[in-house]
Amino acid sequence: MTRYLLKRLPSALLVLALASFVVFSILRLIPGDPASSLAGPDASAETVAAIRARLGLDEPLFTQYAHWVGDLVRGDLGPSYAIGGDTASLIGDGLAATAQLTLGALVLVVLIGGALGIAGATARRGWVRGAVRAVTTGALAVPPYVTGVLLVLVFAVALGVLPPGGHASFLDAPDLAVQYLLLPALCLALPSAAVLGRYLKDGIEHALAEDYVRTAKAAGVAPRRLLWRHAVPNALPPVVTLLGMQTGHLLGGAVLVEAIFAWPGLGRLAEQGLTRRDYPVVQDLLLLLVAVFVVVQLLTDLVYAWLDPRIRWE
Amino acid sequence: MTAEPALLHVRDLNVEFTSPDGTPLRAVRDVSFTLRRGETLAVVGESGSGKSTTALALTRMLPGNGRIAGGEVRLDGAELTSAPEETLRAVRGSRIGMIFQDPMTSLNPVLTIGRQLDEVLRAHAPRKERGEAGEQPHRGDSHPRGTERRRREGGTTRAARRARSVELLSLVGIPEPERRLDDHPHQFSGGQRQRILIALALAGEPDLLVADEPTTALDATVQEQILDLLADLGRTTGVAVLLITHNMGVVARSCERVLVMYGGTVVEEGATRDVLTRPRHPYTAGLLAAVPRLTSPSGTRLTGIPGSPPGLELLGTAGHRGCAFAARCTVAQERCRTEVPVLVAAGAGRVACGPATDGTYTPVALPEAERIERPAPGAVVLSADGIRKTYRRGRRTFTALDDVSLTLRAGETLGIVGESGSGKSTLARVLAHAHPADAGTLRLRGDDVTRPRRRALHDVRREVQMVFQDPYASLNPRLTVGEIIAEPLIAFGLAADRDERERRVAALLGQVGLDPSAADRRPRSFSGGQRQRIGIARALAPQPAVLICDEPVSALDVSVQAQIVNLLTDLQRDLGLALVFIAHDLAVVRQVSHRIAVMHHGRIVETGPADALCESPENPYTRALLSAAPDPAVLVAA
Amino acid sequence: MTLTTPTPHQNKGRTRKSRRSPYLTALTTARGRTGLLLVLLVALAGVLAPVLSGHAPTDQSGDTLLPPLSAGHPLGTDDLGRDLLSRVLYGIRADLGIIAVAVPLGAAAGCACALLAAVHPVVDTVVQRAFDLVLAFPGLILALAVTAVLGPGRTPVIVVIAVAEIPVFGRQLRAGILVQRGREYVAAARVGGTGRARLLTRHILPNATDPLIVQLAVSLTVAVFIEGAMSFLGVGVRPPTPTLGGVLSQSMPYLSQHPNYAAGPLLAVTALVLGLSLLAEALNREVRR
User: Distance between CA A157 and CA A164 in Å, rounded?
Assistant: First the structure.
């Protein structure tokens, strides 16, 4: 298992290194100069130059890149330019909120997607299959920003059972935090859950038609155990890969959902940082998101290998 | 009721499949047979004969688009075709166990063997009351007392089930069963997997074991071991066996009675010795004549049945009239095409053939093998010296070819036999320059062509062509047959313009016995044998000197195999081709080859003139191969 | 030749059917027909926008938030008094203009990468890591960054969609090529003397493209969503030019009081996406046969 991980590691690190370069370049491509926007419209050329020197922006681009990467490796994220405060704590707070949202959504994706997949693959009644199809198609046909607003209308405005937006920390008020989390997480989870459900349904149906299920059925194994002991374990590995990819989609979708539900996460931080050309915040934040995705991919591969003994023994 | 009542009684069984466009297709029609306790009955037939469908229908295991359209299946008198699903689940495994053809896909890849056995034992843990009390004495007699007691204890706890699993694995001959329980299927060889499948089928201690082509995917030597195991189990546990196979040798070896199926119906039934020595139905006679005999000398012609077995579509309910075999039958009369023949008693058996019943057709004895006039081999065309090829899979390396040397003369056939993994397919690909050799020298008419430059490679390829094993996978599904055959003509610049190309394609199609109109259709509308003809036409297109045939008949039915083998020998005679004929069936190889090379673990262990090698083998491995090949004639005579 | 000519394996009903392209067969299924109808309806509405609507999409009248079926405004007006019907129709037009450029662009770039990767193992590694890199950036963060560089407008939306689709198509085609390359008919063609370029164009690619056609339909739906999300975040096509996502996101604040405002654009988006999904499903079923 360790060897398997070691084999994957180099390409993961390479992606991370490439990403740091791309992130750095994108920011330098943004028109406008952070020093002059920091100094304000009326500032003199000297003031701007002084700010530029203070921030190290007068150095050659390569030196700036080397400084940034060097600081990162040492764990020193430095202060933010424009937003104010420490980059590390800004990103830390955003990450906590976004992690809450995406993890909450991930749980819902597994629960809803799993239920849809298994119901879709095994239900004998036509209407159950029809309902599963309708839900999966519907969840993919309505844009998430509309779903979000509809959820708010139904649960917050009409029924008044859940808050329409905002955020509470899990540590301070867990019950409140769950209430705040439910709608945004659901809104974020629905499309991914539909995709997962469809994949799982196909996978289980495929596995149920395999020879080994026939073998077990011919030996008298009951249908319920055919499903849970034979078909589901075989349908899982590709679904896990899909789940890894969907985690990336969730991180992306979080930007939108955070905007709808006023959720103070990384998406909003990225938006602020980009409009105000806060190089350190945006650089570190983008690289962090890439790193999260890369780690998730590694985990996915590990879980896949754990689920499928054939890979493990290669 | 003097005789013992039958264990299984099938009457007028009909099975229909719904085709994708909604029309019902009848795969099995009016099949009737009985099976007594402890008896071994063979069901023999070619692809599409309905034999596997019949087996699946017994316990209603048909796939989703299939259904029983009529008839009854009685197990100890209890009707199964209309029984509730619950009853059938109790029957499956504990009354009727099943073994399937492909041991590679029939075991769950992500579960350990122990888990899979445990699942089955758990399913039978709370013993259900089954059958009437009257049957008890038989069951009691057929099981040794110890087993009976163990079975009752077996299902209770996990530890007990594990102990029983170990017992089952050792019963089917898996060494170190205790340790191997925790292994996954991919850690076992094909033969071992088949043994595990048998253990799974035996776990519920059934009265009847249905084995659907249990040895088809296995090498001859392993096949022999599995058949021995089944025979032993029949003796020790008293289980009845319904053995489904296309292999007459397997039938002769292990079954008392045989049921011959064709086109979804039973055409003949009787004692194995009677059917195999005095077939009554022209199809049975043709099938027996088509089976290559190890005793047939080199240079004799195989006997086939013209045409190919009917597909389901042809047998569809509408428009089906007359005998299914009439279209291929050499003695068919006018009424055979209009009247459906009835299965009637004939001698000790039954036969469904009008002419055979009323005596207008009497089968002739096996015809004497016809010698082929072929000129003596000429000069050496292709030679290989010290060829070596290794594959790397992760950190392990695997030597596929180890110091292989051979020569091939013009107009000569070199047969190469070996079991799976012996390296014979790799050798074919190295000879045809589909893969490069790692070491050694290949010579074409004396020139070194081991690692040719691109230009030279092109010339070599023109001279050395290849016929592939799988007639389904080796033809591009997107192209028409004409386009497929024209590809080499274009690649080698052999036809000046479109018209000439079309003329050449038509001529090639004619050469392999296909109608020129075939050029406009895609491969999927052809049968296996016809596709193999297309593959041969493609290989002949650049007018090669050497034809490498990699198991060209392994995927074909016996009756069709003869057509392809004879086509190849005719082409050799007419065109002076040098042939490399690779197969795992020694009998076929002997008949077509001048010389034979036996491969084992990537080496040629013995080589010599075909007849001499088969009659007085020197290498122990060759001897093992020879003795494992089940020859119906020899076995029945013994 | 002593052989009798075998009778061809004729199965008349199916031969005729099998000769037709699976894409056409897919379009004749119930699913395919419904999907095609929906997509065509929406597309037609977009194309005929100038004919169907009596107002320019940016003309403001004094009457704001009129209910549907008002005189001259069949769908009512929006918060600035603009005719909703013409905004939806022109929105469809704008969306079609974006996705019809962006998705094929991304698909072509992705396929080009996959073809390059097929040339040499070193290129393959490079291309693969590049795909990983693009996939590693969450799509909407990428959208924010691209818009920051290029400024808001139609171009960044197209760039974002195209870039996001590159690895999707690239990976699919690469996997397809790898699978087909291992098939025996390819080995047979190679032994038959077919050169590398012809092997790729005549044998491998035609058999590897089926999943791409399905992916095309799926990606078009994704593109509709990306456009909408970018408009919602304020980094999409600049107002007052209408897009489906733009009109829809402008209607969100009025959803509880004036649900008709959102109904038009939502219906259009849903019909388009549903139609494309149904088409994708129908194609997928037929292609996998």
Answer: 8
Is B10 within 8 Å of B34 (Cβ atoms)?
yes
Number of compact structural domains in chain B:
1
pTM, to two decimals:
0.84
Smallest CA–CA distance, residue A247 to chain B, in Å, is 25
Q: A193 lies in a domain? A: yes
Higher pLDDT, B259 or C76: B259
The Cα–Cα gap between A140 and A168 comes to 29
Q: Does C136 touch chain A (CB under 8 A)?
A: yes
How many CB atoms are closer than 10 A to CB B166? 19
Omega of the bond leading into C240 within 30 degrees of 0 (cis): yes
Nearest to B487 among C3, C192, C289 (CB): C192
Q: Which residues constitute the domain of residue C119?
A: 95-239+276-289
* C40 vs A: CB within 8 A: no
CB contact (8 A) between residue C255 and residue A150: yes
Q: How many domains does chain A have?
A: 1
- CA C81 to CA B556: how far, in whole Å? 76
Structure tokens at C39: 């997509």
CA atoms of C162 and B114, how far apart (whole Å): 51
pLDDT at C28 over 50: yes
Enumerate the residues of chain C whose CB falls inside 8 A of the CB of residue A267. Answer: 140-141
What are the two backbone dihedrals, phi and then psi, of residue B11, each rounded to the nearest 5 degrees?
-130, 125
Tell me the residues of chain C between 152 and 181 that have a Cβ less than 8 Å away from chain B. Answer: none
Task: Kindly state whether residue B310 falls inside one of the protein's structural domains.
Answer: no
Q: What is the CATH number of the domain that holds B531?
A: 3.40.50.300
What residue of B is the nearest CA neighbor of A231? B108
User: Tell me: the pLDDT tens digits for B181-202?
Assistant: 999 998 898 889 999 999 999 9
Question: Which of C5, C17, C188 shows the shortest C-beta gap to B513?
Answer: C5
pLDDT at C203: 92
DSSP A49: H
Looking at the domain assignment, is residue C205 inside a domain? yes
How close A27 gets to chain C, by Cα (Å)?
Answer: 8
pLDDT tens, position by position, for chain A (314 residues)?
677 778 888 888 888 999 999 888 888 888 877 777 777 777 788 888 888 887 778 888 888 888 888 888 888 877 887 777 888 888 888 888 899 899 999 999 999 999 999 999 988 888 888 899 889 888 888 888 888 888 888 888 788 888 877 777 777 778 888 888 888 999 999 999 999 999 999 999 999 999 999 999 999 899 999 999 999 999 998 899 889 888 888 988 888 888 888 888 888 888 888 888 888 888 888 889 889 988 998 888 888 888 888 776 54
Average pLDDT, stretch B421-438?
89
The amino acid present at C142, given as its one-letter code, is L
Contacts C194 to B, Cβ<8 Å: 487-488, 491
Residue A291 included in any domain: no
Q: Does C195 touch chain B (CB under 8 A)?
A: yes
For residue C132, the chain A residue with the least C-alpha distance is A15
**Secondary structure class of B468 (helix, strand, coil):** coil
Q: Taking CB atoms and an 8 Å cutoff, what residues of chain B touch A229?
A: 111, 115, 119
> Does B443 fall in a domain?
yes
Distance from CA of B492 to the nearest CA of C (A): 7
Residue C22 resides in a domain: no
Here the ipTM equals 0.85
For residue B569, give the nearest of B605, B608, B598, B610 by alpha carbon: B610
The rounded Cα B299 to chain-centroid distance in angstroms is 24
Total number of domains in chain C = 1
For residue A158, the domain's CATH number is: 1.10.3720.10
